[in-house]
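[step 3/7] inverse_fold.run input=structure_tokens len=260
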């Protein structure tokens, strides 16, 4: 597969994966999700690669979410499929990878961007990072596992507040909440993550793969929540609130939600 929106660099046993759509703040369109799937599958199959670091290109964003322009005209059925395919192809896929993935959050990690960071095994943020799930400001809910992984990481009360307010939190608050493990200066982020990845790479890859599977098995004894998320995400696409929310974003204005 020829890669357009994703770049890969190998540094010894560590692979650095870059999401490279900076003009759209690395928003996840279909093409980027497919490319990321392919890249992660190839790296996981390569026994020389012992750890992966994922970041967004440019100084401004890790990933600003799913690509709103791409799904703004979707029906309920298409919305449901978007979440189901995305979860399977990228978010659950990364979570279940045998190779550990560190998200290097170098700026905005919003919506699908924070969901991707949460699907990674470890998160490190730079001071300029801003994290949140702003989907309800578009008339949507998080559809790539965010309603499940955010409460797992920061607890139900904080997760509900962050989701309902569509708010963004700064890196230091995210660390206090346990959403990111460490915070660094932007210029130190790559070196910090590389060093951690190299430390991980010295340990037994088979044992780490088994640890990932065991930890995930405990946290995903049922997929009911993920399935419910797909259903409710799809239902949002049939609402006037969704049409108003996405149109307002594309027209760069504030939404005026009609409600139920
Ligand atoms: N989808 C598509 N395009 C996006 C995008 C997204 N999620 N985020 C940013 N962009 C585009 C903007 O439209 C803009 O494009 P143009 O230059 O062609 O107009 C470009 O990226 C730069 O963005 P801004 O001009 O808006 O930059 P800013 O500095 O003024 O604001 C921001 C930055 C606060 C992150 C703002 O871009 C923003 O709010 N983005 C959307 C965040 C969001 O709502 N994410 C959730 C998406 S829904 C989702 O992810 C669903 C799911 O769970 C599956």
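[step 3/7] decode complete -> sequence:
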């Amino acid at each position: 597969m020829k890669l357009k929106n994703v770049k890969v660099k190998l540094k010894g046993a560590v692979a650095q994966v870059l999401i490279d759509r900076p003009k759209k703040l690395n928003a996840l369109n279909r093409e980027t999700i497919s490319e990321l799937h392919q890249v992660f599958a190839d790296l996981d199959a390569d026994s020389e690669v012992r750890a992966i670091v994922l970041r967004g290109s440019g100084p401004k964003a890790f990933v600003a979410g799913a690509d709103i322009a791409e799904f703004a005209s979707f029906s309920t059925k298409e919305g449901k499929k978007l979440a189901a395919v995305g979860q399977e192809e990228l978010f659950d896929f990364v979570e279940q990878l045998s190779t550990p993935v560190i998200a290097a959050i170098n700026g905005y990690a919003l919506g699908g961007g924070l969901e991707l960071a949460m699907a990674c095994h470890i998160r490190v943020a730079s001071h300029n990072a801003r994290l949140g799930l702003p989907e309800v400001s578009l008339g949507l809910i998080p559809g790539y596992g965010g309603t499940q992984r955010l409460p797992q990481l920061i607890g139900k009360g904080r997760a509900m507040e962050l989701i309902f307010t569509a708010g963004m939190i700064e890196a230091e608050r995210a660390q206090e909440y346990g959403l990111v493990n460490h915070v660094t200066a932007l210029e130190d982020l790559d070196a910090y993550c590389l060093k951690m990845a190299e430390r991980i790479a010295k340990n037994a890859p088979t044992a780490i793969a088994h640890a990932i599977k065991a930890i995930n098995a405990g946290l995903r004894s049922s997929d009911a929540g993920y399935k419910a998320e797909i259903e409710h995400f799809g239902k949002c696409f049939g609402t006037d609130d969704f049409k108003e929310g996405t149109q307002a974003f594309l027209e760069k204005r504030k939404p005026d939600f009609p409600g139920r």
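[step 4/7] annotate
The two ends are 45 Å apart (CA to CA).
The beta strands are 6-11, 14-19, 51-56, 61-63, 101-105, 108-110, 122-126, 130-132, 169-170, 182-184.
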